[in-house]
What we know:
Blueprint: H1 4-11, H2 15-43, H3 54-72, H4 78-81, E1 85-91, E2 97-103, H5 107-117, H6 119-136, H7 138-168
Antiparallel strand pairs: 1-2
Amino acid sequence: MQPPYYILRRLRLPALESLMIFHAAFMALYSFLFALFVYLLRATGRGFPTAIPPFDFLLLCLATFRVTELITCDSITRFMREPFLTRRKERKPDGETEEKVKPAGGGIRRTLGELIICPWCIGVWIGTLLAYFYLWTPGIARVFLLATSVAGGGIMFQLFTKWLDKISDR
């Protein structure tokens, strides 16, 4: 029996449709990791929380925001994104030059590129991993969550003040 991607190639379907195989594979991986984590929680007797304290929930939210920004936008992690992206400079109608960033290549490389440049997409993965970390080792996780949450909160304050400056200039 041939693997599914071979069948798609034989049918000569557009690249986008063959790319869906890799999207489906990532969704399957996500589901598998979720099931594995649930199994490990049960097998180790840790159980499932009935509630998360509001402060910890806020830490998780802010940390997810900050780590997502770190991976998708910050120059310090550009080296991680580069193998999966292509950059092209385009001239806008007003004469300014703008750099366009798009996923590179095809297959799994392109799928990872799409995941890395989409804050909404990678944010789900990061939020899930941080939640797992929090549920597995709450004490250690809180230290990391607190550090990244403080950084995330600082960025939010910067964005808020820039927004206030922008509306006050009108």
